[in-house]
Structure formats: structure tokens, C-alpha cells
Specification:
The complex is a heterodimer of chains A (243) and B (82). Chain A is α/β, with parallel strands linked by helices and 243 residues long. Helix content of chain A is 22%, strand content 26%. Chain A contains 5 helices and 13 strands. Chain A has a 9-stranded mixed sheet with strand order 4-3-5-6-13-12-11-8-9, sandwiched between helices. A two-stranded antiparallel ribbon of chain A has the order 1-2. Chain A has a two-stranded antiparallel sheet with strand order 7-10. Chain A is globular and about 45 Å long. Chain B has 82 residues and is of the alpha+beta class. Chain B has 2 helices and 3 strands, in the order E-H-E-H-E. Chain B has a 3-stranded antiparallel sheet with strand order 2-1-3, covered by helices on one side. Classes of the chains: A alpha/beta (243), B alpha+beta (82). At the A-B interface, loops of A face helix 1 of B.
Chain lengths: 243, 82
């Protein structure tokens, strides 16, 4: 285990927990045991009293509130999200994974919406992702055009936004990951859910908030079949150390 | 006094509705070949304490529908106060 330290201080990471979050323990294990961060859970009814306490906050996957109404819709309107908006405004780093991505969209921290997968199936498999922008805290140890192998497990990952907004997203370099084949070709066959332009992950304009459908925490150790997800967490750790 | 409001939420025309598509294909394979399209939406009933001013209720239901019950990017809504 490598201890991630800033000077003498450990990096503090927070993981939000909603009723129905189910990847919270996986993320906890990855951040604490694999990457050596100081990790604590943030309950959805809580408020962040001190935004500076956390260097990094993860909204994990799952089925918050049973996906009632729309995936992520109810969690996006719970108490903690006001704090997370303030945290994001102050430059705090937020990573939303799967349901976490859906919550960020519903909360308006990222643009667009998720529709049901075009296949109508719950897609649970390994996919490949092409990196489009290495200029973010989440991708600073990666190269543009490089290919990552990671698992997905979702029913509503069909990213949708208006055409104008897709153009704006691309112009702002907010398109971070696209589904691709093993060689990095962005094809219709490599798109598991019908997302516009094979979009798998996007960020906000300041690049401090990112959402992605694949699960980097499930690809952080050799045992899990890929360590490409670790590259995202290692990027965040490197970025925080260099701030 | 308690009033009932009905909110119907539907996907916008330009948004693909995979549920509707699946239902359509089942209807066709069941022999209902004259069915041309299916769109699946949500029907939501609200019970609201109105006080005296019923006009305010309409505004409130509209606000609830915009902010919570629908996602304006992909959905439309229709309100009926009973």
C-alpha cells in the first residue's frame, strides 16, 4: 500500500451515501486500501461544514432512492447536494461514478440527461474508453487518445443533450471519455447504451467536476482484471499533491 | 381543503423512447398491426392542502413539475387540477 500524503498530511476523500448507494464500499476500499487516502462517508442528510476538509469527493454508483422518478433525480434534491454545489463552486474536486454521474446531471452540476439504454437492457460488461482531454484533475496522468479498459453496469446510461449543447461541450473540451473498441476506434458497435457521440464521461467548464458511467473503482487492482481505473484515481492524487 | 392535482410527464417528441418502442414491437407481434406508435410516460397524483387560494395551487404544481417531477431537457408535463 502506498500512502498518499501532502507533506505530512494525508489526502482527505469523502464518499457521499444515499439510500440505495451500493458502490460506496467499493469506492471506500479502493481509496483507502489501494490508494492510501484518508476516507470518510458523507450521509445525504448532512451538510459540509467545512468545504476545505475534503480534497476530493466521490458520488458513488448504485440506485439512490431506487431510481424512482428518474435515475439520480431524488438524490440530486437531497440536503447534501447544496453543500456539494458550494464545494464545486469553490473549486472542490467531485467525481460522479455511474449513478453519481446521473445525480450530477440531475443536480445541474453537469449538463445533459440520461435516458434508458437503447438496448433496453441492463448492460453489465467490460468496455473500452478513449481519453479525449488529459487536461483535467481526473486524467492528468493519461494521454489523449489512450484507451482504458473498465466495467460498466447500468440501465440508464444513454447520454442525451441538445445538439447545440454537445457542440458547446466539445468546444469547451468537456468531453472526456468516449466508448471505443480495443484499438480506440469510436464506433457504433462499441457504444453500449446509445449515448450521443459514444459519450461515456464529461466534465464541467472548470474541469473540477466529472461524471462517468464506467466504474474506475472496479478496475483498480490486478485481481479485478484491469488497473486502468487506478489511472483516474492516481491522476486525482497527483493533481491534489501539485496544487 | 385538499385538492387533487394530476401531472402527466411525457418524453419530448425528439427524444427516443425505448420503452415505447419495445411496447410497439410487442403490440405488432401480437397482431395489432394498425398501431403506429407508442410513447410511455408517467402519471403522478398530488394531494395538496389548498387553504383558500386555489390559484396559488396551480402555480405551485407547475413549479413542482418543473423542478422535480420532470426533467425539462427531455420531458414535457401536463397539469390538471381536479
Amino acid at each position: 500500500m502506498v500512502m498518499a500524503m501532502i507533506g505530512d498530511k494525508k489526502i482527505n476523500a469523502g464518499i457521499t451515501v444515499f439510500p440505495g448507494s451500493n458502490c460506496d464500499m467499493d469506492v471506500y476500499y479502493a481509496l483507502k486500501d489501494v490508494f492510501g487516502l484518508n476516507v470518510s462517508f458523507i450521509w445525504h442528510k448532512d451538510r459540509l461544514l467545512d468545504c476545505k476538509k475534503y480534497h476530493f469527493i466521490v458520488i458513488p454508483g448504485g440506485f439512490s432512492y431506487g431510481d424512482y422518478l428518474r435515475a439520480g433525480a431524488l438524490a440530486a434534491r437531497s440536503g447534501i447536494m447544496e453543500s456539494l454545489k458550494e464545494y464545486a463552486d469553490s473549486g472542490g474536486i467531485i467525481l460522479g461514478i455511474c449513478n453519481g454521474f446521473q445525480i450530477l446531471l440531475e443536480a445541474g452540476l453537469l449538463g445533459g440527461a440520461m435516458l434508458t439504454n437503447s438496448s433496453l437492457r441492463f448492460e453489465c460488461k467490460t468496455v473500452y474508453l478513449k481519453v479525449l482531454n488529459k487536461g483535467t484533475p481526473f486524467t492528468c496522468m493519461l494521454e489523449n487518445g489512450s484507451v482504458l479498459k473498465m466495467p460498466i453496469a447500468h440501465h440508464d446510461g444513454n447520454y442525451y443533450a441538445k445538439n447545440d449543447d454537445i457542440v458547446k461541450l466539445k468546444d469547451a473540451r468537456g468531453l472526456i471519455f468516449q466508448y471505443c473498441d480495443i484499438n480506440g476506434n469510436v464506433t457504433a458497435e462499441a457504444n453500449p447504451n446509445g449515448s450521443i457521440d459514444n459519450i461515456a464521461g464529461i466534465s464541467n467548464g472548470k474541469f473540477n467536476v466529472m461524471g462517468l458511467m464506467p466504474h474506475p473503482e472496479r478496475a483498480s487492482e490486478k485481481l479485478t482484471g484491469s488497473i486502468d481505473g487506478a489511472k483516474i484515481f492516481n491522476s486525482v492524487i497527483k493533481y491534489i499533491k501539485n496544487i | 381543503m385538499i385538492k387533487k392535482a394530476v401531472v402527466k410527464v411525457t418524453l419530448k417528441e425528439e427524444v427516443l423512447d425505448p420503452q415505447g418502442k419495445a411496447v410497439l414491437s410487442v403490440l405488432k407481434s401480437s397482431g395489432y398491426n394498425n398501431v403506429r406508435g407508442v410513447r410511455v410516460g408517467k402519471y403522478i397524483e398530488l394531494e395538496i392542502e389548498t387553504g383558500k387560494n386555489t390559484v396559488l395551487i396551480e402555480n405551485e404544481v407547475k413549479e413542482i413539475s418543473e423542478k422535480v417531477l420532470s426533467n425539462p431537457l427531455i420531458e414535457n408535463f401536463d397539469i390538471e387540477i381536479l
